[in-house]
Amino acid sequence: MDIIYIFEKNKEWVQDKLRIDPNYFSNLSKGQNPDILYIGCSDSRVTAEELMGVAPGEVFVHRNIANMVPNTDLSAMSVIDYAALHLKVKHIVVCGHYYCGGVKAAMQSQDLGILNPWLRNIRDVYRTHRKELNDIKDEDQRYKRLVELNVQEQCINVIKTAEVQRAYRDRGITVHGWVFDIHSGKLIDLKIDFSEIMENVMEIYRLD
Ligand SMILES: [Zn+2]
Hints:
The protein starts with a helix and ends with a helix. About 50% of the residues lie in helices and about 15% in strands. The chain has a 5-stranded mixed sheet. The protein contains 10 helices and 5 strands. The chain is globular and about 55 Å long. Helix 5 crosses helix 6. The chain is an alpha/beta fold. The protein has helices spanning about 5-20, 25-30, 50, 75-85, 100-105, 115-130, 130-135, 140-160, 160-170, 195-205, and strands at about 35-40, 60-65, 90-95, 175-180, 185-190. Bound molecules: zinc ion. Zinc ion binds next to helix 5. Zinc ion binds near residues 41, 66, 101 and 102.
């Protein structure tokens, strides 16, 4: 893809939007009021808005390698803080995807330089669930399961944050774990028992 075409595409996109609604951009510029925070992978095949069929203004998005929520990551923590406290989103989604390069890399013992500390967070997920994972003989299935367990652990990291606990107590907020199956294009809800995790987490991590 030639980068010059992006500006042509952008012109077409602006025209398309204005054809449907002449006030589209002036309305968009008034502010955002999304109900959902989406935390997903940077993978170019997992497009957040497009796969959910949502329009600009509907979802607040954060993406990084392997949809991680490390509690020392200022970027992820700021996004969660802003979404929960100021945008007052009703839902926070952590969306992983099968065939995730980040998760795959974490499953191999390889020195990947600056990526090491980042991927170590996924290796910690493997360690936490190693019994279940080691019992899965098929490597492809084990890899897929680690993707799911990583989503679950990142949901727990979201729930551990003070802002989410406060939002849960004060106005209700829900955390969802999803996986995008690149092979079929389908979004899968892992149906993580949010309230049970919340109770357990609050017992240990309650902040006020
Ligand atoms: Zn990925």
